[in-house]
Amino acid sequence: MRAVVWLLVLMMFSAPLSGCFGEEEIEEFEENVFELLCLDGIANNTWYHYSNATDATKVSDVFNGTSVLVGDNIPACAFGTYYGIGMTTFEPTVGATTADNLYMTSWGNGDNGATAIVRCSGMIGMNNVSEYVCEDVYNVFLPVANSNDPYLYVDLWTDRVMKFDMHALLGMTVEWSDNEGESWTGPSVATGWSVQDHQTIASSPYPALLHPTTWVFCVNGNYPYPVCATSNDGGLSWGPELPGAPNGCNSGGLTGHMVGSENGNFYRGNRGCDGGEGYSIYRSTNGGITWTEHPLPTETTGTAETWNFEEAQVAADSEDNVHAMWMGFDNMPYYSYSQDEGETWSEPLMIAPPIGLNGTGFPVLAAGGVGKVAFGYLGDSGGDIWNGYLTVITDAFSEMPLMTTVQVNAWGDPLDTTADCGFNRCGGFGDFNDIVIDQYGRPWFGLAHNIGGEIGIFGTMTIGPSLRGNGTLEELPVGGPGTL
Predict the structure, then answer these.
(1) In which domain of life is the source organism classified (predicted)?
(2) Taking the domains of the chain in order of start, what are their residue ranges?
(3) Exposed e or buried b for every residue in 258-267, given b needs 16+ CB within 10 A?
(4) Which residues neighbour 8 within 8 Å (Cβ) at sequence distance 6 or greater?
(5) Hey, how many other C-beta atoms are within 10 angstroms of the C-beta on 377?
(6) DSSP 8-class letter at 472
(7) Per-residue pLDDT tens digits for 268-289
(8) In CATH, which superfamily holds the domain spanning 46-477?
(9) Could you tell me the CA-to-CA distances from 373 to 167, 325, 327, 343, 394 in Å, in that order?
(10) Phi then psi for 428, rounded to 5 degrees?
C-alpha cells in the first residue's frame, strides 16, 4: 500500500513537471521516481534496471522522446526474502493451488523414507511468519519408495497435485490428489521402453477423453532426444513413449521444465537439433505426440558450458505468448519472447542486475499475465558467495522493459559458498530448481539453503509488482534464517 501511495503522488506531479525543465532537471527528477517508491528507500538487495545491467536509477527513461515508465512498465517498491519449509530438499519442484497452498518435494523425508510432499498453508497472504505451517501431506497406507528424482506438478487448470517418482532409472510411478494432499490415488505406472531419468511433466487444456486436461511427461531416455508419453485420463494410464523431437533430431535427451499453454500447446527447451551451440524451444500442438523445433536467438549470446548447459527454460503467459530463458557463454541469464508460438523471437536481453555478478546458474522461468514474467537463478556476487535472485518484468513488450531484481537472501546469509556452485550439481539444488506464480501474481522461487542444511526455501518478494493484472502485491512479513 505504501508503494501505491507514492505512485499516485508521482503520477499527479510527473505530467506537469516533465515538460517544464531542461534535460538535467528531467534526469534529476527521474532519479526521484525510484527514490520515492519506498518510504525507507531502495533496499541494498533490490535493483531497478534495463537490459545489460543498465541501472535504471542512473539513466534517462526517455526513449524516442517519451518515457518508457508508463502503463505496466512503471516501477513499484520491491523487497526480497525467503521462507523455509523446515525439511531438506533435493531438486525442488514446486506448485501453488487456488486454495492458497504451496507445495515442494522433499527427498526421502516422508513415511518409511518416501518422498515427502510438503504443503505450506498460510504462507500466501500471511501477516506474520508464525502463521504458516509446512507439513508432509503424503500419508498413505503403502507409500511408494523414495525416488532418485522426485517431481511434483500442480495442474494450473484443475488444481490436481501430481506426484511423480523415478525409481533407479527403471521407471516412474504416478500418484495424485484432488483435495490438497489429504488423500492420494494411485500409483499408476508410467514406464516405457527407455531409461527413465531427468523427467519433466506438465498439463494443458488440449482436449482429453477422460480428464479436463491432457498430461505429458518427457524423460532423458539416454537417446539422442527426449522421449515423451501422454495421458488422457489425468495420469491413470499413459500412451507409448514417442520421440520428443522431429525425425533425425540430435538434441540430446536432457530438457528443461515443460509447460502447457492456454491454447493447449506444450513447450520445453534444450539443445538445438544440430547439437551445436544453440538452444531451441520444442513445441507440440497435438498433446505431446509430435514436436517441432524453434531455435532461440543465441547467435550473439552463445550458450553456457556448465552442468545444466543442455537446458533452456520456457513459459507461456495468459494469452499464449511464449517466453524463454537461457544462460549465455558468459554465464549470464538471457531472455527472449515470441508472440507467434515460437516461430519468431525478440532480440535477447541480458537480465542480471547491475552488481557485477561473476556468473549465474540454475535458471527457472514462469509467466503470469500478458508480458509479465519472473526469472529465478543463482548468482555469485564475489568470492563464491552464491545468492538467489528473482527478476521480474511487468511489460516484456515495452521498448525498454524495466526489470526489478531482488536478492531473496540478505547480505551475510548466502545460500552456498562452494566454488562454482551455480555451474555444477550443488547440494539441495541438484540438477534444477523451480518457480511458480500464484493467483495473486506473486512469484515463488523454489530452491535450497545449502548452508542452512539444504533446507527447502521459497524465495519471493515481500512487496513488489503483481504479475497478474495491475497494481502491487499485498505486503508479506520478512522471512530469512529464522524460518529455516
Answers:
(1) Archaea
(2) 2-35, 46-477
(3) bbbbeebbbb
(4) none
(5) 29
(6) B
(7) 998 899 866 789 999 999 999 9
(8) Fucose-specific lectin (2.120.10.70)
(9) 34, 10, 17, 20, 7
(10) -70, -10
